[in-house]
TrEMBL record, chain B:
Species per Swiss-Prot/TrEMBL record: Microterricola pindariensis
InterPro entries: Perm_prefix_1
Record protein name field: ABC transporter permease
Keyword Membrane belongs to the record: yes
Source domain of life: Bacteria
Keyword Kinase belongs to the record: no
Keyword annotations from UniProtKB, A to Z: Membrane, Transmembrane, Transmembrane helix
Length: 109, 325
């Protein structure tokens, strides 16, 4: 039963990883730091999924990136683009709508 | 290019992952892999692992490099995905059910007409059926694998499903034993008669031994074949009973069985190999010669054989159509 519960929770949260990335990357950050922040906040995602996802979001113009070579190792820093902020706002509105709908379902019955 | 923090395992991992990526994107992605691995190792080291163990643990966590590469390039990790799977399955079933029996029957008939013995014919049918089946499976699957990889922007299946494609409800429950039992009894009696006629006859020769109706020479070739075929027919009758209704596959197998029986029987009859010459000679014909009588009787038997097989085969298809899915 706990396995099933964990799976449902993971499934529910999976769709929110994109929104979490767009919101978090309002300030520039690199992949692994983002991964640790997300995991600490309960967004279960692994490196092998997050890195390709960031790249896809960049290709869609939702993120912009720049290599930072000032540190010991070069790292790719991602930042949410204007388009990304727009999408983040839309997704947040969607999230609020889902929240309202759920409340209405609970109270309406 | 290896820095002190990335040992040979990491380099090998990066190389393995880059292999699965188109040349153009490699230069772009390799630094990303490098960063990803170095940061993963660092995180493992922060957990208190030694340099070597940290690298190992990090790569274990990242998993198969080919899988990572596939995620980057959106390459499917399956041969045929859910979009085309049902199209593939339906097409394959349909082609196997139609092409294999026809090809196998054609191969058998060709070998028969070329004067092949029963063993040759059975071998030709079996090898053709297996060969054609394997080829069909391979080529159809290959085409679908290519479609899966080419048509990445197609989101719809090849054949749009409509409610008209729903199967008919099975009419009634299981077939009654009323059809199975008579079929099995008839086949058993037929098989028993083939054996029986060898030892019992209306006519006896000079030594008082019975003269069999069917050529005794056939016992070393075709009669065992026909007996085996009768056993197959029994199996078919049982299969039909268990299936509960006629299907396209059943109808095609029925056609194949009919061909397997009628074609050799007809050929043996018309080439004069089926009926024992001694039996013909023993038939008391008043005045006229034996050849004239057999010349008149054989075509009638032949027409009856063909007519029965044709009716039985067509009946199978008609019933399959009525109960179609």
């Amino acid at each position: 039963m706990d396995d099933a519960k964990a799976q449902h929770v993971q499934e529910l949260r999976r769709g929110t990883v994109v929104l979490a990335c767009l919101v978090r990357l309002a300030t520039p950050d690199y992949g692994y730091a983002l991964l640790e922040t997300l995991n600490a906040r309960g967004f279960a995602v692994d490196a092998g999924t997050l890195y390709p996802l960031l790249r896809r979001l960049e290709k869609q113009g939702l993120l912009s990136s720049a290599w930072n070579t000032e540190e010991a190792r070069p790292r790719k820093f991602y930042t949410t683009s204007a388009l990304g902020h727009q999408l983040a706002a839309q997704l947040t509105a969607e999230w609020d709508a889902i929240d309202r709908s759920l409340r209405a379902l609970k109270e309406g019955q | 290019m290896s820095t002190p923090s990335t040992g040979t395992l990491s380099e090998r991992y990066i190389w393995a992952a880059s292999r699965g990526i188109p040349e153009k994107q490699r230069a772009e992605l390799e630094p990303e892999f490098r960063e990803l691995i170095a940061d993963s190792i660092e995180a493992q080291r922060a957990n208190g692992l030694s340099e070597r163990d940290a690298e190992h643990a990090a790569l274990v966590e990242l998993g198969d490099p080919a899988r990572l590469a596939a995620r980057y390039t959106d390459r499917p990790l399956h041969l045929i995905g859910p979009r085309y799977y049902l199209d593939w399955l339906r097409l394959l079933k349909l082609l196997l059910a139609i092409v294999v029996p026809i090809a196998a029957a054609a191969a058998g008939v060709a070998r028969l007409l070329a004067g092949g013995q029963v063993g040759d014919v059975v071998a030709a049918v079996a090898t053709t059926a297996i060969g054609v089946g394997v080829h069909l499976c391979f080529w159809v699957t290959l085409v679908f694998v290519l479609i899966e990889r080419q048509g990445a922007n197609r989101s719809r299946p090849l054949l749009e499903w409509t409610p008209d494609m729903l199967p008919q409800l099975p009419s009634g429950n299981r077939r009654s034993l009323g059809e199975l039992v008579p079929t099995l009894v008839f086949l058993a009696v037929f098989a028993a008669w083939i054996v029986w006629q060898h030892f019992n006859s209306f006519f006896t020769d000079a030594a008082g031994d019975p003269i069999p109706l069917l050529s005794p020479a056939l016992w070393s070739s075709w009669l065992p074949y026909f007996l085996a075929l009768i056993v197959l027919e029994m199996g078919f009758a049982l299969w039909l009973y268990l299936r509960g209704r006629w299907t396209l596959t059943l109808a095609l197998v029925n056609l194949l069985l009919n061909l397997a029986f009628t074609v050799p029987a007809l050929w043996l009859l018309l080439t004069g190999q089926l009926i024992n010459p001694a039996f013909e000679a023993a038939v008391p014909v008043d005045g006229s010669n034996v050849a004239a009588v057999s010349g008149a009787v054989y075509p009638i038997i032949a027409i009856a054989l063909v007519g029965f097989a044709l009716w039985d085969a067509v009946d199978g298809f008609v019933r399959a159509w009525r109960a179609r899915e």
